[in-house]
Amino acid sequence: MLKASIWRLFPPQHETVDKGHGRIETRRIWCSTELNGYIDFPYHGQVTLIERITTDLKGQKPRHEIAFGVTSLTSEKATPEKLLQLNRGQWSIENKLHYVRDVTFDEDRCRIHTKSAPRLMATLRNFAISLLNLTKHSNIAKALRLYAAKPHLTLRLFGL
Fold this sequence. Notes:
The chain is α+β, with helices and mostly antiparallel strands. The protein has helices at residues 4-7, 80-104, 117-134, 140-149, 151-157; strands at 14-20, 23-32, 46-56, 63-71.
């Protein structure tokens, strides 16, 4: 297995520095096609190493993370810049969905814990979020209040 220190022999192929939410985050990416044909991973196009260094604005509490990845995207289809952008975008989708589930639906305090009921409730919540997103509601909480107050509008979402 490749160690992270080997990758650092070369400068990163792309780097971003973002400031926000009380912290500074530096992201670096190294990509390679050199392992194509050697790793046993279907449809692999590139391997990546992503390094994230996060510090608060006072320069304290540094956090250092390294993540290895495999993608089916070839170097012609996805530059290091694009791969770093895709990686960051994946987390924004995850965070947006989980935020709505945690805050709007208060999922963490749900008392349903037996058999397949928790999975069923998560599926129903995801369905509701997806339906509201498809109908162009930008504020899920506001949309839920609207449909709770006017149930006849809910039926229209289903074409009834």
